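Quarterly update from the structural biology core.
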Amino acid sequence: MIARLVNFFGEKRHSRRRWKLFLKLLVLIVIADFLVPRPHVDYFWQAIPGWAAIFGFISCAAIIFISKFIGHSGGIMRDEDYYD
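Predicted structure, tokenized:
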């Protein structure tokens, strides 16, 4: 069972099936987000369906890009043969 799961996520031949599964899951989550009642929200944007997903994606992308910028421009990253 675990070997089949590892092969499904690791092999190139399953890439099309993985994308279809991902897109179906994404659509299901977006539909479910419209069905969730939000009777008590603190801010108006919390009542917008999909707000948490959008905010999470933008935050994650910002962390990645800022980290890459700091690593490359700030001199934190070094070449593999830096100490040779």
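The two ends are 45 Å apart (CA to CA).
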